Amino acid sequence: MADKFKKISPYLLNFIGCSLVVSVIFYAIGVLILLDKPIEAPSADYSAPEITLLGDSHITIYTGDSYDDPGAISDTTVFASGQVDATRPGDYLVSYVTADSAGNIATASRVVTVLSRNTGVIYLTFDDGPSAYTAELLDVLAKYNVKATFFVTNAGSDEMIAREYNEGHAIGLHSCTHDYSYIYTSVDNFFSDLYCVQNRVKNITGYTSYLMRFPGGSSNLVSSRYDGGTRIMSTLVREVEARGFTYFDWNITSGDAGGTTSSDGVYRNVINQVYRDGKSVVLQHDIKSFSVAAVERIIQWGLANGFTFDKLSADSFTAHHGVNN
Known about the structure:
Elements lengths: L1 H35 L14 E3 L4 E5 L9 E3 L4 E3 L8 E10 L5 E11 L5 E7 L6 H10 L5 E4 L5 H9 L3 E4 L6 H4 L3 H19 L5 E2 L19 H11 L3 E2 L4 E2 L9 H9 L7 E7 L3 H5 L1 H10 L3 E2 L16
Parallel strand pairs: 2-6, 7-8, 7-13, 7-14, 8-9, 10-11, 12-13
Antiparallel strand pairs: 1-3, 4-5, 5-6
Helix pairs in contact: 7-9
């Protein structure tokens, strides 16, 4: 029996050895397959929660206004930070943040601009018309419900003067001829010219205007070329008031009668000069298309910065110049 076992055992040992080798090979192959297969991690939530601003992302208020922040909303609690000091001009950032249970964070923010509250009044005044551009100007004024003052001449159409009056604007007198060499030769000539344009306005509107502006303003020196040395302006400023007229000069010039030849230039000239807390009588000419083209931007800027617009009356600020002749 032992001899038989001795004869069989080498074969048995070979079998066992081969089985072990095959097992190791299959085990190794299994390990390699497992290593090559991607390992799937447990699913995680990386989606940030939604946060929505209530109200605009940029809010503008004026000093002295109360500010109630509209806030923001989310499915989770929203925390706000940042303070707005409505007494001090500046830009203020208000931030909002929220987080969900997985730790995902969402943020939002808004800017609150506090502007100085300007108490200034702007009087837009237009000389030398009406003209072909006056209708365009009246359309802009009507769009913003702004009233202006027109110092008219004998030019242009009667319909435009009627429209100015019917739409609630002030009608002042500038001159019939706007001819310095005539109106500043004598007091009689001046009033003959002034009454001429006054009668025109009355015939068109039924209204007798006593608001007026001297051609060249009360401070003009061109009158000295024609008055024979009589210093006619010193006489005229007294005489117009004695006859019941109120004359107006200006304290803001658009430059449209001088070196400024673009609507951008007119716009900059006006907004850079107006009195923030006072009265600004702006000189423009509705016979200049580029000047008329600047009016809408001037109005938009004025309204956005807290100014009011008004027309002149006998009780208004007159912006008188110093008389030089």
